[in-house]
């Protein structure tokens, strides 16, 4: 008789976000090159765009640590939070999820603060400013003339490396054949790689076994369901944002 199934607990894990942990490849090389050029940017702002899980937050942390830039979250950006910037005078500021700013006048104020003292604004977003519903012509024109660097979907080698990194972040050692098996079967996106590793980790905990190729094969139906659910959630979010 087999033993009782283990309850998969949602254990917290901390991703490795140091500069040495960032995986540079063809799809993100242009974005990395722009950050390496700082402060030699042609405009006060630079926007880096890419899908969920592409490594934008990781890059933002690296840039912030190198430059001393504070990080603001777009959807929580408020004018009161910008007051310390006038006195502290940082050389750069990072705005994560810049396409989610609730009031464009606040972003315009932030831009002007930095531009007025030859500082820089690094914006992370899922889409380019040309697609944002900006209702301030002056802000729109400034962001449209600033450079935009895109992080592209991962190729085979990068996707395998991202999968290996997510396993490593969870403290899980897996054989290369597991990573290779997954890399050619999952959706080619950073978000899918992160989600797949989470599903496999939960599945392994539930059955009380280490992660092997047979276990991954057994988890495939669950991976398919998770992918369908995630795709449906993404489509729902896109419909909501378009309105």
UniProtKB/TrEMBL annotation:
An individual GO BP term: DNA replication initiation
GO MF terms, alphabetically ordered: DNA replication origin binding
Entries under Gene3D superfamilies matching the protein: 1.10.8.60, P-loop containing nucleotide triphosphate hydrolases
Residue ranges constituting the Hda lid domain according to the UniProt record: 159-220
SUPFAM superfamilies linked to this entry: P-loop containing nucleoside triphosphate hydrolases
Pfam families: Hda_lid (PF22688)
Record-linked InterPro entries: Hda_lid, P-loop_NTPase
A GO cellular-component term linked to this record: plasma membrane
Coiled-coil parts of chain: none
Name of this protein: DnaA protein
Species annotation: Stella humosa
